[in-house]
Amino acid sequence: MATAYDVVVIGAGTGGYVAAIRAAQLGKKVAVVEKQKSLGGTCLIWGCIPTKALLEHAHAMKVVQHAEEWGVMLPYGQPAINMQTVHARKDKVVAGLTKGIEFLFKKNKIDWIKGTARLAGKGKVDVVEGEKQSLEAREIIIATGSAPRSVPGIEIDHRRIITSDEAIHLPQVPKTLVILGSGAVGVEFASIYRRFGSEGTIIELLPRLVPVEDEAVSAELEKSFKKQGIRSLTGTKVTKATAGANGVDVEAQTADGKTETLSADILLVATGRGPVTTGLGVEALGIQMEKGYVKVDSMYRTSVANISAIGDVITLGGAHPQLAHVSSAEAILVAERIAGQEVRPLNYDHVPGCTYCDPEIGSVGLTEAEAKKRGYDVRIGSFPFGVLGRAKMAGESDGFVKIVADKKYDEVLGVHMIGPRSTELVAEAVLALRLECTVEELTRTIHAHPTFSEAVAEAAHAAHGAAIHM
Question: Per the count of CB atoms within 10 A, which of 227, 332, 427, 457 is most buried?
Fold first, then answer.
C-alpha cells in the first residue's frame, strides 16, 4: 500500500529541499525522493559550493603570491598549491552543508526517500531504484535540475575532455587547459586554474566573454584576463576535439576564418546545462514539454493538475535563468501557493546574476543594450573601483560599477559591476530595482567610508554628471 503525503518533491537541490522545508513549515506532510548520496543537489555537491570553495583557495593563493607587497615574508621561497589539501577542505565544507540540510529535514519531519522517482499518474510516484516503494501525494513538485551538456561532435570521456563535475576534483593542476564556453562556469574555472598555475585559453562562439552581461563588463573581463595571462578566443567555433593518452587536440575556426589547433592537458566543456527528465515519465503523463524542459505557467503549474515544476528543469516559454537562488525563490512560491497563501509571480528582471571569477561580476536588471531595445531613453553612470581608498587598501582596483537609468523618470533600470566584492554589492542594486528607486535616491543614500559600496553611490552621481571623485 502506498504511503500518503501532502507533498512529494522529486529532487533535493536548492529548489527541491527549499520547497520541502517551506511546505513542512506550513503544516504539510512532505517526502523528498533523491538518488544522490547527499542532499543539496548540483549546487551543494557539484556546483556553487565546491567551485566557490576552490575560488577562495585561488584568492588565498593570489594574496600569498604577493606576500612581499603585504610585508609578509616567505622564508621557503615561492608558494605552491597542494591539491590534496585543497580538496580535503573543499569536501569538508560541502559535507558540513549537506549534513546541515539533513538536520533541517529531521527538524521539519521531512522523509528523505533514497532512490529514483518516476511519475505514475493520479498523484502517484513510484520509487523505482533504491528504496523501492509507491507514494501518493496531493501535490507533486518536480525539481530534478540540470546536468552538464556537450556540443555536437565533441565526446566527453571524463578524463581528457571533461565537464565541471570532473573539474572540481582534478587531483593535479593541469599545465595547460582549454575551456569551451565563457559563461559563469567557464570563466570561474579559468580564474581558479590560472591562479593555481595553468596556462589557460577560453574559446567562446559568441563575439565576447560572458555574453549575457553588459558589453562593458565583457570588455573589462577580457582586459583583466589578458593581464592575468588567460587567453580569450571569441567568435571562435570548435570543430573537433581529439583526446589521447597525454592530452587533447582542439581544432577551432577563429573569428577571421582561420583554423587553429590547440594542444592541452585538459579540455573543459562548459557550454551550458540541460534539463534532467530521463526516466521521470513526464511524456507518458502528457506533461507539456519544450525542447526537453518542463513547461510551466507563472505559478509553476505544469499542464497536469497538481504537478508543479521549478528550477533548472523548467521553461516559462522564454529564457529562464539556471541559478540556485532562482530555484529557491520559485520553491518558496510554490510551497506557499500549495498551502493556500497568496503569492505573486516573480519578476525575472530583478534576479541578480553573480559570477565569481577574478574580478567578480554582479548584475541585475537591464543592460544598456536591453534598455535601449525596450525603448528607454537611457542615461549611464559609471565609476571605477580603482579610485576608492578601500579598493587601494585591498589591492583590488580592477573594474567598475555601471548604472543604467531612464532619463525621463530617473528610474534605475539595471546595475552592472565587475570588481572586488561585486557578488555581495549587487544586493543593494537588487533592492533598488525592487523598490523602483530613482538615481537621485541612490545619490542621497549615505554609503559608509571607506567601503567598496561607495562605488555604487559614485556611479549614481556620475549618471547625473556629478561624480565627486572622478
Answer: 457
